[in-house]
């Protein structure tokens, strides 16, 4: 196998089934400010140029995120630096105009079960698809000509509920009004599957479903395994089953320390987890020996270490984590979330050199 150079698609397919392949697959994400810094430090190109230099193997073909008020973007007030906006989710946020960053959440319109059942659920059910089926199929065809691994992407129900209601309202409701949360999760999952069905029926027969939802933070999960199993896990399993029934893999993105959920991820049939946030205590060196025959791992290279510029520490970070993930043939490179502007272009080029040096299979 090492003498054979695989296509990106072949490489990912084999990684996700933990079979022999030539090198670890690669992908990463970058802040806009990171690309600007790198351009000032000698990068000749843009975001796409960096992915090409990296040798990225994976592309997206669609993004599903059902919203109750499509197209809504009402500017309520603004300054030179910020805008106060009522969004397509029916909430009010303050956004930075000229830099990246999490918006300030001012008000959530869906702040009670009554609001959900009377206003927001009907609006969601009335709204059309959040994907373009024809465009999804065209994106897949383009990735196929490049032999890239193609993913249908989108939000999952817990993240959708967080964005609709806010953490305080949602997490309180999970304890006090579980029937409301269960209905929201089921509704969102129905609509996400509706989107995926529409794209698939239009010819978008991708390789994987890759969903995004943060069920953890830097000190643990937002709720207990028992609560997850009761309220959210059944809908995660539905998405996973949808993918598997169509010959696709299922990749799950979550930030935070989610170690206590890993057994439930395995039970639902997840194929891979990403990005394995090192700052929250996720460590492939700890997890691969225990779960590496059941799960593939995607990410975990600590950007706090990368930001130090200490080449010895960076080499240890990359080399040791690649070795752990590669032991079961189930590892792909990604930063442990995305690459911030604290990481220099010289440092990132060094990381790419390390991937070439240590990311090849014998």
Helix percentage range: 40-55%
Order of strands in the sheet with most strands:
1-6-7-10-11-12-13
Characterize the main sheet: 7 strands, parallel
What's the mean pLDDT score? 96
DSSP summary, beta strand count: 13
What is the CA–CA distance across the termini?
A: 8 Å
Write a short abstract of this structure:
46% of the residues lie in helices and 16% in strands. It is α/β, with parallel strands linked by helices and 362 residues long.
Write a structural description.
The longest helix has 24 residues, at 178-201. The chain is α/β, with parallel strands linked by helices and 362 residues long. The chain has helices at 8-16, 32-40, 47-54, 113-126, 133-145, 157-165, 167-176, 178-201, 225-231, 233-245, 262-268, 284-291, 303-308, 311-326, 345-358; strands spanning 58-64, 74-78, 82-86, 91-96, 104-108, 149-155, 208-212, 216-217, 220-221, 249-254, 272-275, 296-298, 331-332. It contains 15 helices and 13 strands. It is globular and about 60 Å long. It starts with 7 loop residues before the first helix and ends with a helix. It has a seven-stranded parallel beta sheet with strand order 1-6-7-10-11-12-13.
Core attributes:
single chain, 362 residues, alpha/beta, 4-stranded antiparallel sheet, 15 helices
């Amino acid at each position: 196998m090492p003498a054979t150079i695989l296509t990106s698609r072949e490489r990912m397919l084999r990684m996700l089934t933990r079979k022999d392949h030539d090198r670890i697959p690669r992908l990463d994400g970058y802040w806009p400010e990171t690309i600007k810094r790198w351009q000032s430090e000698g990068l000749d190109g843009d975001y796409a140029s960096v992915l090409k230099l990296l040798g990225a193997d994976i592309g997206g073909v669609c993004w599903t995120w059902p919203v109750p008020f499509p197209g809504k973007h009402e500017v309520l007030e603004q300054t030179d630096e910020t805008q106060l906006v009522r969004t397509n989710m029916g909430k009010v946020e303050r956004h930075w105009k000229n830099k990246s960053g999490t918006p300030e959440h001012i008000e959530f319109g869906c702040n009670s079960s009554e609001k959900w059942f009377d206003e927001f659920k009907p609006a969601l059910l009335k709204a059309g698809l959040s994907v373009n089926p024809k465009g999804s199929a065209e994106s897949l065809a383009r990735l196929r000509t490049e032999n890239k691994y193609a993913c249908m992407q989108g939000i999952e129900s817990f993240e959708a509920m967080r964005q609709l209601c806010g953490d305080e309202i949602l997490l309180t409701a999970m304890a006090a009004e579980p029937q409301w949360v269960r209905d929201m999760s089921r509704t969102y999952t129905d609509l996400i599957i509706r989107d995926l069905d529409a794209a698939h029926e239009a010819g978008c027969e991708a390789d994987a479903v890759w969903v995004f939802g943060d069920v953890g933070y830097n000190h643990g999960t937002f709720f207990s395994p028992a609560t997850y199993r009761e309220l959210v896990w059944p809908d995660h399993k539905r998405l996973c089953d949808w993918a598997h029934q169509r010959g696709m893999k299922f990749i799950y993105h979550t930030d935070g320390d989610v170690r206590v959920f890993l057994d439930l991820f395995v039970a639902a049939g997840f194929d891979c987890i990403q990005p394995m946030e090192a700052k929250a205590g996720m460590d492939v060196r700890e997890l691969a020996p225990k779960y590496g025959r059941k799960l593939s791992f995607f990410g975990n290279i600590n950007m706090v270490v990368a930001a130090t510029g200490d080449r010895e520490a960076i080499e240890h970070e990359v080399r040791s984590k690649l070795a752990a993930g590669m032991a079961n043939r189930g590892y792909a490179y990604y930063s442990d979330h995305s690459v911030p502007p604290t990481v220099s272009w010289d440092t990132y080029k060094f990381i790419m050199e390390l991937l070439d040096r240590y990311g090849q299979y014998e």
